[in-house]
């Protein structure tokens, strides 16, 4: 039987021009998953932070033409995914919908578009391989709050084999293209989080470490690896080491730096400005013999293969949360993992389901 299958891609979104930088930031800082202050303090803080932060950030977006490339990048990924799904399951009709959290096309717009399209099945697919309350859970809540149907929901995929192989392949390629330098340190840089978010049971850092463990295992030719965290905002302590520190230390140690974005799957302000300009300048200032930035996964075939497999696996069995291979993976301390909150637990702990 032929089915109409909607695949909803969750992502953060970004401003589409100079005038949307401030409202985009306001939406971000007004998210209770990002700032824990209650109403009406949170919207007041969001107004204040976005007003003061917008001028600096707008200059950075100006380097990318005034807005973020995240929507066009995500549309390319959506097209590649639909083509792969149609080839794998030609009897079905697939359509991908973008659901951005803080700017157009918003999650509520995706809910309306999916309903209008008339899907038989809906798969929610976060473009966040590692689960966080600040990203995937926030998008899932926005989906539900907007009246989105209970759907087949991919929770996370930090060690999905095609995803891991795609990362390892891009790192190896970047190293080869740089002339196979010796004395290399691979910095796996993920977006950071406040320490308090982790203390509340967010599994993101644990899942990032799982990704890095799997990727480094696939790269025996490179033996110096470090996981680090970028993009700190605000006065709270964030998880460490900071990427900027890690770049400085590696440069001072005379390492050729290979910088791989490990929790971003497309290019945007955090890669094109922070990694390509700011941290490159730090590396050069501290005498690094080389600085090679590995591209984000984008439409890398191995990554699209991973998204295709995750979608097809999510279509099996009942509607609901779809943890990796059907089993929750996060240890008990990470109680804010969606799987735990849905009552699914790790098999090897003997807790049962
Ligand atoms: C794994 C992905 C991401 C996590 C985790 C995350 C948490 C997080 N982010 C902020 C604050 C900002 N993030 C901003 C941009 C931005 N963040 C992500 C991803 C994650 N964020 C992406 C993909 C982007 C790029 C958006 C785009 O331009 O396309 C920004 C805006 C830029 C800036 O002002 O520096 C802010 C602010 C917090 C506070 C947080 C966790 C608490
Ligand atoms: Fe962010
Ligand atoms: Fe989990």
Automatic annotation (TrEMBL):
<dbReference type="GO" id="GO:0006783">
    <property type="term" value="P:heme biosynthetic process"/>
</dbReference>
<dbReference type="InterPro" id="IPR001015">
    <property type="entry name" value="Ferrochelatase"/>
</dbReference>
<dbReference type="Pfam" id="PF00762">
    <property type="entry name" value="Ferrochelatase"/>
</dbReference>
<dbReference type="InterPro" id="IPR033659">
    <property type="entry name" value="Ferrochelatase_N"/>
</dbReference>
<dbReference type="InterPro" id="IPR033644">
    <property type="entry name" value="Ferrochelatase_C"/>
</dbReference>
<comment type="function">
    <text>Catalyzes the ferrous insertion into protoporphyrin IX.</text>
</comment>
<keyword id="KW-0963">Cytoplasm</keyword>
<comment type="similarity">
    <text>Belongs to the ferrochelatase family.</text>
</comment>
<feature type="binding site">
    <location>
        <position position="270"/>
    </location>
    <ligand>
        <name>Fe(2+)</name>
    </ligand>
</feature>
<keyword id="KW-0456">Lyase</keyword>
<comment type="pathway">
    <text>Porphyrin-containing compound metabolism; protoheme biosynthesis; protoheme from protoporphyrin-IX: step 1/1.</text>
</comment>
<keyword id="KW-0350">Heme biosynthesis</keyword>
<dbReference type="GO" id="GO:0005737">
    <property type="term" value="C:cytoplasm"/>
</dbReference>
<dbReference type="GO" id="GO:0046872">
    <property type="term" value="F:metal ion binding"/>
</dbReference>
<keyword id="KW-0479">Metal-binding</keyword>
<feature type="binding site">
    <location>
        <position position="191"/>
    </location>
    <ligand>
        <name>Fe(2+)</name>
    </ligand>
</feature>
<dbReference type="InterPro" id="IPR019772">
    <property type="entry name" value="Ferrochelatase_AS"/>
</dbReference>
<dbReference type="GO" id="GO:0004325">
    <property type="term" value="F:ferrochelatase activity"/>
</dbReference>
<keyword id="KW-0627">Porphyrin biosynthesis</keyword>
<keyword id="KW-0408">Iron</keyword>
<protein>
    <recommendedName>
        <fullName>Ferrochelatase</fullName>
        <ecNumber>4.98.1.1</ecNumber>
    </recommendedName>
</protein>
């Amino acid at each position: 039987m032929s089915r109409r299958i909607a695949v909803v891609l969750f992502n953060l979104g970004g401003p589409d021009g100079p005038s949307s930088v401030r409202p985009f930031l306001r939406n971000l800082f007004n998210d209770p998953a990002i700032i824990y202050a209650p109403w009406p303090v949170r919207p007041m803080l969001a107004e204040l932070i976005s007003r003061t932060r917008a001028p600096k950030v707008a200059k950075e977006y100006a380097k990318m033409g005034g807005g973020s490339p995240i929507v066009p990048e995500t549309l390319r990924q959506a097209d590649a995914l639909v083509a792969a799904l149609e080839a794998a399951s030609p009897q079905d009709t697939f359509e991908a919908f973008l659901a951005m959290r803080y700017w157009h096309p918003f999650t509520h717009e995706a809910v309306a578009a999916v309903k209008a399209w008339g899907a038989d099945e809906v798969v929610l697919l976060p473009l966040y391989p590692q689960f966080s309350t600040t990203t995937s859970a926030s998008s899932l809540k926005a989906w539900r709050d907007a009246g989105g149907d209970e759907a087949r929901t991919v929770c996370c995929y930090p060690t999905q084999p095609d995803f891991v192989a795609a990362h390892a392949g891009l790192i190896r390629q970047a190293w080869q293209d740089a002339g196979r330098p010796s004395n290399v340190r691979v910095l796996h840089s993920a977006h950071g989080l406040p320490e308090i978010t982790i203390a509340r049971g967010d599994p993101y850092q644990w899942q990032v470490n799982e990704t890095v463990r799997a990727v480094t295992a696939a790269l025996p030719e490179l033996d110096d690896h470090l996981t680090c965290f970028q993009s700190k905002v605000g006065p709270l302590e964030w998880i460490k080491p900071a990427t900027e520190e890690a770049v400085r230390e590696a440069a001072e140690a005379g390492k050729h730096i290979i910088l791989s974005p490990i929790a971003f799957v497309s290019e945007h302000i955090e890669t094109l400005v922070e990694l390509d300009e700011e941290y490159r300048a730090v590396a050069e200032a501290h005498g690094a013999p080389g600085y090679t930035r590995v591209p984000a996964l984008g439409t890398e075939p191995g990554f699209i293969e991973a998204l295709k497999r995750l979608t097809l696996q999510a279509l099996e069995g009942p509607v609901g949360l779809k943890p990796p291979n059907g089993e929750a993976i996060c240890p008990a301390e990470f109680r804010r993992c969606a799987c735990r909150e849905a009552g699914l637990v790790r098999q090897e702990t003997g807790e049962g389901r």
